[in-house]
Each structure stands twice: as C-alpha cells, then as structure tokens.
Amino acid sequence: MRRTSALALAAVLVGGATSVATAPPSAAEAAPIGFASVTALGQSGTTGGAGGPAVTVSTAADFTAAVKADGPRVVRVQGMITLAAGMYDVSSDKTVIGVGANSGITGGGLNIGLPVSSVTTPPANAVHNVIIRNMVFRNANDDSINVQMFSHHVWIDHNDLSAGKDGLIDIKRGSSYVTVSWNHTHHHTKNMLLGHDDGNAAQDTGHLKVTYHHNFFDRTPQRNPRTRFGNPVHVFNNYYVANSDTGVACQNKSGCWVEGNYFENVEEPMTNSYAGPKGSIVERDNVYVNSGEPVVGGSVEDPRGYYAYTLDTPANVKALVTQGAGTGKI
User: Fold this and answer.
1) Exactly one of 73, 173, 223, 228 is catalytic; which is it?
2) Among this protein's residues, is 73 annotated catalytic?
3) pTM of the entire predicted model
C-alpha cells in the first residue's frame, strides 16, 4: 500500500519562488473509457444516439417525448428545463446532451431502465446504449439519474449534479457496463449508490460492473460511491475533497479497485466495513492529504481483464479534475 503526501507534488522554482507543477486538463473523450466501452450482452461499446436524427428541445413536453422515443436519437437540451416532480424514462440508443455549460433539467430526474420486477436474468428488451453528457441536474424530487433493471452500456459524463432529494447517480438491480466520468457533484449528501439493498443478491450478483473516473466529489459527505455486489468496481483518478463521512464505501461482496485518486480533507477515504456485510478493496497509488487511513482488504478482480486504460499521475489529479470535470468542457 502506497502513501503519498501533498509534498509529492512536483515543485518548480521560478524566479526564486516555489510553484506547483500541474498538468493541463485532458480533452474530453470521444468515447467512454471503462466498462461502458466493453463488448458484452450483444452491444459493442456505447454509442448512444449515433446514426439517428438530432433534435434540439427547450420545453418539458418536447424533452420528455424525445428521450423516450423509439429508435436512435441525439437530444440536444437548450437551457434549463423545469420538469414536474417525477422520474422520466430514457429509452435505448439515446444521447442526451446539454448545449453549452448551463443547460439541463430541474425538478425531476432521468430513469434509464424498465419498471422494477423480480426477474433475475437480463431481459431481451433491457434499456441499453444511453449517453448522458454535459447536463446540469438540479433539485430532483427523487434521484437525478437512476439506472435500473439490467440496463447496460450507459455513459454518464461531464455533468453537474446537485441538490437532489435522493441519489445523484444510482445504479442498481442488475445494471452493468456503465462508466461514470468527469462529473461534478456538490451540495448533496447521498451521492452515488451502486446496488440498492443487501438482500438483492439474486439480481445483482455477477452484474453492477461500473467504472468511476475523473469525477469531482466536492464536499459530498457519503456514497462516493457506496457499493454492493459489483466486482470489479473500478474507481480511479477521482478528486475527493472534504467528504465528511466516507469516500468509497465497498460493502456486501462487492469488490472495489481504488487507484490513482486524490483525497483531500476526507475523514475516511475508503472502507470495506462501513455498514452491513463487508466488501473487498484493493488500494493502489492514491494521494492522501489531511485525510484518514483507508480501511481495505480482500481480493478484487483486476479491471484490466475487461479493458485497457491509462492512469493519470495521481499527484496531478486535483488539477486535472477541477479544471476538466462538469459542464462546458466538451
């Protein structure tokens, strides 16, 4: 296990003064890295609405009709759209993308998935191939984004999410092959949940394969993420700051591979014994600044068995993520 302090940041002398060398923000990826890139369940990566028509929407009626329409479609959201309270379905083969830095939805949330049932194998009509990018989410009366019921190949990227009632990004009930990347989450307590219940092993075992990378967990106290059953859950190159409860909480047979993250003023950066049955955590090359000790142990599948990726230098992650995460960057 490696410990790296703030002094590990490269110092450069310029004109007798000391400054910190940082890397410039990376250009936004054109395609997902991580589990959303994997060929599985009849889907080769995640392309969203590519190949379908593009439509620009600025009203609640047009927005909700466009995101649930049949067939591939790119839905361009212009401005902040106020939705009535509730969760609004997004169908397969959709890209939902905000125009500029200040477009999105408020009042309601997005549901990516079939209605809840007790089935334990992926249904043929499971929602799949969905991209949510560059969207502002505010004041949802439930979840801001909910992925459920064996949905797969979902890419949630470069969004700004805050002030919801329940989770900002929850993934559950057998969903898998999801990448959550470059999002800025803030002004919210229950951030991201993976696996909703300790008693849902029948649906979740073997699923809930999710990658979380380059997210800015900005003073979100808990669920950054909190996981159950998924293995591996890959958490890399995220920036955590002032998370007053926990960073990664890996529980109930889940396995988290946590590497190359930057934890600053985090009470408990990661734990496999937060509440309920334990999970497993492999911890590598993380930066800890004014933070507590990680609680780790157990074995986890190596995500490189599923996809290739390149880690950014952990000492540069704070600068990369604060400059590159959120809206207006793609």
Assistant:
1) 223
2) no
3) 0.93
